[in-house]
Amino acid sequence: MERNRIAIVTGGSRGIGAATAKLAAQAGYRVCIAYRHRQKEADDVVSAIERDGGEAMAVGADVGREADVMRLFDAVDRRFGEVTALVNNAGILERQMRVEEMDAERLTRVFNANVVGSFLCAREAVRRMSTRHGGHGGAIVNVSSVAARLGSPNEYIDYAASKAAIDTLTVGLAKEVAAEGIRVNCVRPGSIYTEIHASGGEPGRVDRVKSRIPMQRGGEADEIARAIVWLLSDEASYMTGSLVDVAGGL
């Protein structure tokens, strides 16, 4: 490894985030798992990485809170050094409902966690990675969703809209920092078997909708993680501002 590789994976205690953290560690990254509530699950991911010979840490942080984000990055600075890879994976989904049933509190929660959090983490990463600030470059991968272009009518248009904002963040930031040694890309998962669907009130949603997917099945967290870690790697060295769908043909 030509230089220290340090990754932060937000929402890293379960699902896509946990799979990404483990795969990044296998690829040689020292990994910080950021979590909001699930300390035991985050610690379990750290333990799994360490059992395989990797280095990891877990930091509790609500990415929608600026002070928490700054504390997260400071903790990584102290333990591992300045971050070279960021995976903006943290996000929430609320119960399925139509727009006319949504209140402002719900919208604030969704956009704060899914959009504000990604902006704040990207800001702190750029401050450390950018050659403009004395950094040595790096890579950011944002986790969006195919919902950003499908809209999720009758279920969670708010979630879909928040992910559309992540798509725009990816394109704009990629152009802003391309000459400063930072690549910014986005993975848009389709229907994946993770616990997030229970938050929407339908744990078995993937099985209900899989017949609409051209490949006729839901995806697994590891399938998304492989795309994310590849985009972080030098194998994707000429990619920035790309939105990569991993959605079985949706």
UniProtKB/TrEMBL annotation:
Spell out the family assignment given in the record's similarity comment: Belongs to the short-chain dehydrogenases/reductases (SDR) family.
Question: Which PROSITE patterns would you find in this protein's record?
Answer: ADH_SHORT (PS00061)
Q: Which UniProt keywords apply?
A: Oxidoreductase
* Name under which the protein is recorded: Short chain dehydrogenase
Q: Which SMART domains does the UniProt record give?
A: PKS_KR (SM00822)
Cross-referenced Pfam families: adh_short_C2
- For this protein, the parts annotated as crossing the membrane are none
User: Which residues belong to any copy of the Ketoreductase domain?
Assistant: 5-185
Give start-end of the signal peptide: none
Give the GO molecular function terms.
Answer: oxidoreductase activity, acting on CH-OH group of donors
| Top-rank lineage group of the source organism | Bacteria
